[in-house]
Amino acid sequence: MLQKILSEKINIWQKEIHSVIKEKGDEVISEVTVSQAYGGMRGVKGLTCETSAVSADSGLIIRGHPLKDISHISPEEVFFLLLTGELPNSSSLKDIQDQLKNNQKVPEYVWRILESMPKNSHPMTMLTIAIQSLQVDSVFVKKYNAGTPKTDLWKWTLEDGITLLGVIPGIAAGIYRMRFNKGARIEPDKTLDWSANFAHMLGIQNEDFKKLMRLYLMLHCDHEGGNVSAFSSLTVASALSSPFLSVAAGLNGLAGPLHGLANQECLKFVLDVQEHFKGVPSEKELEDFCWDRLNSGRVIPGYGHAVLRCPDPRFTAFMEFGKKYITNDDVFSVVQSLFKVVPPVLQEQGKAKNPWPNVDAASGSLLYHYGLKEFNYYTVLFSISRAMGIIAQMVINRAMGIPITRPKSVTTEWIKNNT
Ligand code: AMX
């Protein structure tokens, strides 16, 4: 059903894009300065992304819906929205949920590979190796090798993408139980939705934690096309590498401390505050603590952003969840106090362009509350969710026939002689 809905839309989108290129192909949308060429291409508009956009003053917008308006929808619904631009009706939702359930079974070779890795491997290394190993069963590769027309490649990208989304919660939960000595793996439960089944396989049998997983896996799904994980995945996919190799490439980027790994740092900071004061400090104590940290040349984790200039709506959604479901928890209380204290401190200091919290300021405290205390696992949760956005972007890029990524680089000598 999803494939049929997409086929119809893709025909329309292809025509629209062809006419945009025909009418506006020579219009200039961005210029590049020498500083930008040396500075990670920050701010250069050189890509298109249909699934989502990030606005400085309102944050993530998914297919035209500001995140704050749709933070209640499930990950399965957001995946359908990312792909098609529409929210699913009940039969489309059931169809996508069934497709995910039909792909829950983790192949035995994945467990053998994971079991043979060093016991202290980072969970993200384990996850991306497991995903890469699934390449052996890639339909995309089989169809490509059989000479499938280029115009059909999106269909096999989608098929592999759904296989991956079906299997990734089981792999991730298996990694958690293996890596942190939680006991035997827990079999999937077909009566549960994608997020609740993941919580079940982790071994955290708490109804509110299942709700948190639904929110967590929805909120991290996509953040337009130029962030490290999406951009890396799409670059690899543009060479027609399989969706498994391409998603693994992006998630290896998410495993970097400047990107997805930042969430473990943020919780560590909150726990340091709690440990330092043996509980929840007063606002004045917290303010002094933050100034001491800034004056010693360190940043306040969880605050600031390269693009946003407002509180991240994903942070707001997590705070609303915490206020609704969590009481008498020192760690969450510290997070709430930091939200009162840090923005005015950063504003007074005057360095950070954005004094507001980002997504990572609250998420760790909620996971911690429900007993998921292994910080270095948190980026795996982010990865399960982000795989949805990456796969949706990949399907659309294949359908639109976006060619291999190949920007032009220049040497410093060239810049000296030509500018
Ligand atoms: N605390 C203290 N100083 C901060 C700050 C913070 N939270 N955020 C920014 N600043 C400082 C910068 O270090 C920089 O100082 P400098 O001029 O001495 O180098 C100055 O303010 C200007 O930085 P900026 O343009 O506002 O930010 P940026 O785009 O360069 O960096 C980010 C953005 C997120 C890396 C930065 O705000 C930061 O380090 N925040 C804390 C760490 C964090 O929360 N990371 C998670 C990011 C979310 C994510 O992507 N997962």
Task: Describe this entry's structure for a reader.
The chain is mainly alpha-helical. 61% of the residues lie in helices and 2% in strands. The chain has 20 helices and three strands. It has helices spanning 2-24, 34-38, 67-70, 75-84, 90-102, 108-115, 123-133, 139-145, 153-179, 194-202, 207-219, 228-238, 243-254, 262-277, 283-295, 313-325, 330-349, 360-369, 378-399, 412-418; strands spanning 52-55, 59-62, 65-66. It has a three-stranded antiparallel β-sheet with strand order 1-2-3. A hairpin with a 2-residue loop joins strand 2 (59-62) and strand 3 (65-66). Helix 11 runs antiparallel to helix 16 (313-325) and helix 11 packs across helix 19 (378-399). It is globular, with a radius of gyration of 22 Å. The termini are far apart. The relative contact order is 0.14. The model has no long low-confidence stretch (mean pLDDT 96). The chain binds amidocarboxymethyldethia coenzyme *A. Residues 259, 262, 294, 299-306, 346, 351-354, 358, 360 line the site of amidocarboxymethyldethia coenzyme *A (AMX).
